[in-house]
Description:
Layout: H1 4-14, E1 16-18, H2 20-26, H3 35-44, E2 46-51, E3 59-65, E4 71-78, E5 83-89
Amino acid sequence: MTDIRELVRQAAQKNLLFLPHAIRQMSRPERMIRANDVEKVVQEGEMIEDYPEDQRGHSCLLLGFDAQQRPIHVVCSPKEDYLAIITVYLPHPNKWNPHFKQRLSP
C-alpha cells in the first residue's frame, strides 16, 4: 500500500483544490499565506500528523516554511484527480513545540 505522503505528492501533481476554509484562512490580513507557499509545503514539507480515519477521507498535516521562514501547516487530503487543501494556517507558538511538529498539552 502506498503511504499517505506519496499519495499527497501524486495528487498534487494533478491539481490543487483549495477548499473555502483554506482560502479564508490564507487571506486573513494578519497572516496572508500565498498559494505558492502552500504548493512548496505540499511538495517539500514534512508530514507531522496522519489522519487515516478523517471523515473527509485520509488526510494529513504537513509542516513547511515560506520565504520569510514562517512555519506553515497544511491539512490536505489526496483524491484521485486532485489534492484537497482543507486548511492552511500559521501554527501558534503557544500550542506547538518550538519546531512546530508536536502539539503542546492543554
